[in-house]
Amino acid sequence: MNKIKVSPSLLASDFGRMGEEARRIIACGADWIHCDVMDGDFVPNISFGQPMIAALRKYTDGFLDVHLMVREPGRYVEEFAAAGADMITVHAEACDHLHRTLQQIRAAGKKAGVALNPATDINVIEYVLPLCDMVLCMSVNPGFGGQKLIPEVIEKIRRLSARLRELGREDIDIQIDGGVTEENAAELRAAGVTCLVAGSSVFKAQDMAKAIAAIRGE
What we know:
33% of the residues lie in helices and 20% in strands.
C-alpha cells in the first residue's frame, strides 16, 4: 500500500513569499508541494504558470505536484516539465485526447496524474490507468480555495480504490483536493485516499507541522 502523503496547496500561501512558503511546508513535514495552475477558461480563476514553477524549483528540491486546471494541457506539458514539475496532473474533462497527453507527460520523464471533477465518473479513466501514477478526485468544484468538501465524493473514492485493487494497481496513488481538514482526514484515508491536498487547513494553522501530521494520521 502507498505511504500516506500530504501535499499542501500553495494556492493558500502568501504569494509574495511563495518560495519561502514552499521551503516552510517541507520543513514542517509535507511530502509534496501542490501547485494549482489555473487558466481562467477551464476554471473561473487565474493563478500562475510555468515561470512560477521554474522560480519555485530554485527555492526547493521538494516534490512539485503540479495540477493543471487548464484547457488542452497537452500544449504545455513540455514547458512545465522543463520548469521543474515532478508530477503533472491533467483533467480528463479538459483533454480531447487524454491518452496522448498522459503519454506526453511520461515521455517527458515525469509522473502522470489524471484528475476528475466531482461529477465525473471513474469509468472515464478505465483505459488510461496503465499510464497513470495517480488519480486525483476533486472534492470541490475546481477554481477557488477554501470550499467545503462535497461528501458524495467519498463514495466515489471508495469505488475507485476497490477498482484499483481489482486491477492489481494499488501502486496508483489516490489524491483528494478540496476541503480537506484535520477533522475529515481520517474518513478520507479510510476510504482509500493516499495523498491529501490541504490548503487553508495547513497554511492557516497555528502549528503547521502539527496540522500536517494530523492530516497524515500521525
